[in-house]
Amino acid sequence: MSKRLVLKELSRYDTGTYADIIYRNSILYSDEMAMKCGSESITFRQVNERVNSLIHALSSLGVKKGDVLGMLSWNCLDYADVYGAAMKFGYISSPFNPRLQLDELDYLINYSETNTLFVGPQLVDLVAQLKPRIPKVKHFISFEKPVPGMISHRELLATFPKDEPQIDLREDDPVFLFYTSGTTGVPRAALYTHRRSIDNTRRFAIALSLEQGDKHIQIMPLFHVGGTSNFWGYFFVGGSNVIMPQVSFDPAASLQAVQDEKATDIHIVATHLAAFLAMPDVDKYDLSSLKRMFYAASPMPLELLKRGLEKWGPIFLEFYGGTEDGPNVSMLSVKQHRMGIEHPEKQHILTSAGFPHIGVHVRIVNDNMEDLEPGDVGEIVVYSKAVLQEWWHKPEETKETITDGWVHTGDMGRYDEQGYIYIVDRKRDMICSGGENVYPREIEEILYQHPAVHEAAVFGIPDDYWVERVHAAVVLKAGAQVTGQEIVEFCKERLARYKAPKSIDFLEALPKNPSGKILKKELREKYWAGKDRKV
Question: What is the CA angle 57-238-309, rounded to 5?
Answer without folding.
Answer: 125
